[in-house]
Write a structure and sequence with these properties.
With 383 residues, this protein is an alpha/beta fold. The protein contains 16 helices and eleven strands. The chain starts with a strand and ends with a helix. The structure holds NADPH dihydro-nicotinamide-adenine-dinucleotide phosphate.
Length: 383
Amino acid sequence: MKRIAILGSTGSIGTQALEVIAANPESFELEVITANNNAELLIAQALAYKPNVVVIANENLYDKVRDALQHEPVKVYAGANALNAVVEMGTVDMVLTAMVGYAGLLPTIRAIEAGKQIALANKETLVVAGQLVTALAKKKGVNIYPVDSEHSAIFQCLAGEFHNPIEKIILTASGGPFRGKDADFLRTVTKAQALKHPNWEMGAKITIDSASLMNKGLEVIEAKWLFGLKNDQIEVIVHPQSIIHSLVQFEDGSIKAQLGLPDMKLPIQYALGYPQRLKSDFPRFSFLDYPQLTFEQPDLSTFRNLQLAFNAMERGGNMPCILNAANEVAVSAFLREEVGFLEMSDIIESCMAKVPYIANPSYEDYVQTDREARERSAELVHK
Ligand code: NDP
């Protein structure tokens, strides 16, 4: 029985994780759920799934959540510090990091310091501070189980092969809603068009990242740290059907892939349940429904964000942190319809050129870099 804390239970990953936990009561116990602003859903989840602790990050909503749950046997806390504290509780075995963005970094570090196993959905944590976080996990003997479907696929291909060196990994990308389009088209796309992903239902930020291919760039950096790879061991291939979730090539030339319908519940369940494969009733894949699985090169000159992510990884140090912060600001501005789709890349590129580079950042350097990159990017949004 694993006792689970879900950071970000009201999001796309969080709500699916709750379903997985509820469907496997013999394997999982829900200990903690958290949200940022969505107090209504958090209250409804507390009533339905009966965790022992609830945290609302926005302190202004504390009274509302506490009042609604006053007759329930559940503790209610508020604020970002409470998020950092609940992951350390003795009653938690595993923390699912399903918050979006940089805000996931500190609670993940706290959870690792407290020796909790991590099911990692929050890829931004490894993009911003992959070296620091993976070194800390190693020191503490903590495993980081990937939830991202591509990284879960690679992890599943590696099961039973951990002693065999990887030659390279191949991350698949759907190509998003604008696959095959040129820059003239992208200049005019709207928020509504960008929020329509062909294969996956996800939160708004990752959906925009998928449309701009930044999501794949973040995943490349995430993979580097999760699997201890050199930069030239990571390839990206566009696979529009999203059936092959990623592949590993070993030193004998053999390639292993993991396949399935696009459904995040499977990688969530695999990460929570590892090393067991729990029985599920998720829809099954049939080859006859997909007689053609196709592959293309990603278009790095039109989808510049992916190239910028490769550049940030090559440069190392605090550059991926700068990339991430600038991207978070640019995506929020795009979602508020303050900048166009292609302007997001301009903001990120310019921010990467302006924020001071640090080759070997400490945690404090990452915090400072994130702050500075956000300020610079905000200026670029409003110029
Ligand atoms: P959502 O936007 O759907 O959900 C985000 C969750 O985080 C919500 O519970 C939200 O609370 C909470 N949250 C947001 N900001 C803060 C904050 N500052 N402090 C505390 N809590 C916060 O995101 P997704 O579920 O789509 O994605 C979550 C993470 O998982 C991301 O890092 C994403 O890249 C990754 N991921 C997602 C996939 C997917 O299919 N969705 C696939 C692979 C990875 P509230 O609801 O109150 O705003």
